[in-house]
Amino acid sequence: MTMVSVTVDGVSYSDEVEPRLLLVQYLRERLGKVGTVIGCDTSNCGACTVLLDGTSVKSCSVLAVQADGADVVTIEGLAAEDGTLHPVQAAFHEKHALQCGFCTPGMIMQTIDLLAEDPEPDEAAVRLGLEGNLCRCTGYQNIVRAVQDAAQRLRATAAADTPKTVAAKADTAGGVR
Ligand code: FES
Ligand code: FES
């Protein structure tokens, strides 16, 4: 057995695990994070995608011990405490980007990584960014729309935050009043 210390959705955990335990199994079976789902178990479908230190990974292709010391975010860590959806979740909901919903946790986590890299992706970039995530229901059209809508929401949030940040910095520096 090997000791693993990891932060998942803002909570710290330390556990003894078998070295062969997959991260997805650790999340679901030890921590009860069943929002992260297993579609194929062979790194093909992307349903199990989570963020590992900010980068999307297929958690069925990562060992739990490889996450030692890391910060993991799952679909369950996105909404605010009052239940307000993350902008990407809200966009998927409003653009009807799901049917059975099985692929959705992975799609959303992959989208967060994609939009961090490219805040204004065109359709081709969205399709390329999500090529490792499979959906058997939607035909992808609404998923692409949702990702572009999410991008717009995140850009609007960033733009709204910027003046406050600048003002706060200026204030701290004793500058502009
Ligand atoms: S369950 Fe991990 S990629 Fe399909
Ligand atoms: S909504 Fe069913 S697999 Fe994507």
Descriptive overview:
- This protein folds into two domains: 1-77, Beta-grasp domain (Ubiquitin-like (UB roll)); 79-166, DNA polymerase, domain 1.
- A five-stranded mixed beta sheet has the order 2-1-5-3-4, with helices on both faces.
- Helix 2 (87-94) packs antiparallel against helix 5 (141-172).
- It starts with a strand and ends in a 5-residue tail after the last helix.
- The protein is an alpha+beta fold and 177 residues long.
- 39% of the residues lie in helices and 14% in strands.
- A hairpin with a 2-residue loop joins strand 1 and strand 2.
- The radius of gyration is 18 Å and the shape is globular.
- The chain binds FE2/S2 (inorganic) cluster (2 copies).
- One FE2/S2 (inorganic) cluster binds at residues 38-41, 43-48, 58, 60.
